[in-house]
Design a protein that fits this description.
By secondary structure, this protein is mostly helical. It has one domain (2-329). It contains 15 helices and no strands. The chain is globular and about 55 Å long.
């Protein structure tokens, strides 16, 4: 079989074999952090603990009662049938998600050093918010990253399947998947699409939410109880991403096509966020899913020009500084 492998497929598989020990070690570390709750209990952990208990009590009847997406529910049903401890179940899902994300990150890492830098970047910026809190979104994000890796290698059918998997784990991914198939090469096209998305969401978000509430329990729950207070449109986290977007647009002719694709995705994510800003929970979730692609921007930055390397390094350092404070030192995230 090995003799039949050619080109990128062979490189990817050989790279995976070499990286497998560190991916397993990374997954084990993620499991232990989750299981031991080293940093304290994350904001949404109690909801998942109750959900796993509900799966044991209700079995298949849970599909008529839960607000969680079917993909995550099926996964939960399988795990509660095998494991009696909720923290272990949570930790196993975290480990699996981190393994998949680590696999994708490894594909785009030009060296082991870059891989570890990306791991630190992901751990500080995304791990507390996704794996330790929004576990369904974390799973969806893993499939979205896999979808991008497949689509960039022109494996359209498998990329679509990965995108569909993301949607059944978190409904917000439905806003992300279509944009993965668009690859505008010109700066003005990227900005025009972003403007069209912003205007469309601003004008149609109320109707869209009403339609989704009729068929998606999670949206209906927020529709009935409210979507939370409007977020700060110029928060430090947003300004950091905007700074990177603007720098990327300025350097448009000096960055690689994958980096341009990520900038396009981030602009679409921002357009949806500001267009739906009155629906805080949904706006945040969608933007957070889009923001995960920054990992691929940074990875490809180290494969590009010197200025791209320098900009990517600065973005990583700024993100580590900001999100270290927000997640670990502010005292407002973990309890």
């Amino acid at each position: 079989m090995g003799a039949m492998l050619r080109g990128k497929d062979a490189v990817a598989i050989n790279g995976y074999i070499r990286a497998k020990p560190r991916l397993l070690l990374l997954s084990l570390a993620a499991f232990l952090i989750s299981y031991c709750q080293i940093f304290g209990e994350s904001p949404d952990y109690g909801s998942y603990d109750l959900f796993f208990d509900s799966l044991r009590w209700n079995g298949l009847d849970i599909f008529g009662e839960t607000r969680f997406e079917p993909g995550f529910t099926v996964l939960g049903l399988a795990l509660v049938a095998l494991v009696s401890s909720n923290p272990v179940i949570y930790g196993l899902i975290v480990a699996g998600v981190v393994f998949l994300k680590g696999f994708v990150v490894n594909l785009f890492s030009s060296s082991q050093a870059v891989f570890y830098v990306l791991v630190i970047f992901y751990f500080v910026r995304y791990f507390p918010l996704h794996e330790l809190t929004q576990l369904r979104a974390a799973t969806a994000a893993a499939f979205l990253l896999l979808a991008v890796a497949l689509l960039w290698n022109e494996k359209w059918a498998f990329g679509l399947l990965a995108g569909m998997a993301a949607i059944i784990f978190h409904v917000s991914a439905v806003f992300v998947v279509p944009s993965l198939f668009l690859h505008p090469a010109k700066r003005w096209v990227v900005l025009l699409i972003g403007l069209v998305v912003f205007v469309s969401i601003s004008l149609g978000v109320n109707l869209l939410i009403s339609e989704l509430a009729d068929s998606v329990p999670l949206v209906d729950m927020y529709h009935q109880g409210g979507f939370g207070d409007a977020p700060n449109p110029i928060s430090a986290a947003l300004l950091l991403d905007w700074a990177m977007i603007i720098l990327g647009l300025i350097m448009w002719n000096r960055i690689s096509p994958p980096m341009k694709q990520v900038l396009f995705l981030e602009i679409v994510g921002m357009a949806i966020f500001y267009g739906a800003i009155d629906f805080a929970v949904i706006a945040h979730r969608i933007r957070e899913l889009f923001s995960v692609f920054w990992v691929l921007f940074v990875a490809n930055g180290w494969r590009s020009s010197f200025i791209a390397k320098l900009t990517s390094a600065g973005f990583v350092l700024a993100s580590i500084g900001l999100y270290s404070y927000l997640h670990f030192f502010s005292g407002q995230f973990f309890t």
